[in-house]
């Protein structure tokens, strides 16, 4: 199931992205808690890292996972949003498309 939510070399508009993380199945679901959303992000992001040694070796990846773990533990929207900002920066640098819609 996770392989269906991660795609390699997908073209969105004018940019070619190396990877895609699919969050659209849960990201805007108001029935999920922040903890549940953070857990889903952790699983998908960790799966992507495990499939790409270059991404896994980036020390920022650990910080991002810790930020989502904190959001999961705190169930706090601001902490989650800060973790997402870190993930977006990481994704831009490594050409990862984050699909939320």
Description:
With 101 residues, this protein is an alpha+beta fold. Helix content is 55%, strand content 19%. It has a three-stranded mixed sheet. Strand 1 and strand 2 form a beta hairpin.
Class per helix and strand makeup: alpha+beta
The Cα radius of gyration reads: 13 Å
For the biggest sheet, the summary is: 3 strands, mixed
**Strand tally, please?**
3
Order of helices and strands: EEHHHHE
- Low-pLDDT stretches are none
Feature tags:
alpha+beta; three-stranded mixed sheet; 4 helices
Quick gist of this model?
With 101 residues, the protein is α+β, with helices and mostly antiparallel strands. The protein has helices at residues 34-51, 53-56, 59-74, 77-94, and strands spanning 6-12, 15-22, 96-99. The protein is globular and about 30 Å long.
Give the SSE map.
Elements: E1 6-12, E2 15-22, H1 34-51, H2 53-56, H3 59-74, H4 77-94, E3 96-99
Helix pairs in contact: 1-3, 3-4
